[in-house]
Task: structure prediction
Amino acid sequence: MRINLEPIGIIKKAGKYSEILIYSEFEQVVKNLVSKVGKGPVCGQELLIIHKNGNGDDIHQVEVTKTTIFDRVGNIIKVGKINAHDDSVIDVRININEDISGHN
Result:
């Protein structure tokens, strides 16, 4: 089974950081990220990025990368350097506590 997913953004390398540009028609994704954090700062939060690997031979494969948010200006999210450039972003999510059972 093949599923065609429309990208919501793109990853660009920016010096010692990477930037995720969310396309303007998907700005609601950024608003949802900010609302999940609440009144706390977005910076320092861990982010999960689902993206197509532009370097791979199989165009139907995606990667999940965990990184830290350093800054957000509008629909551009500056994150820690990740091994991706010009990759299409499929989804971004705030990384919630890995132990969802409630036990520490």
The chain has one helix and six strands. Confidence is low (pLDDT under 50) at residues 99-104.
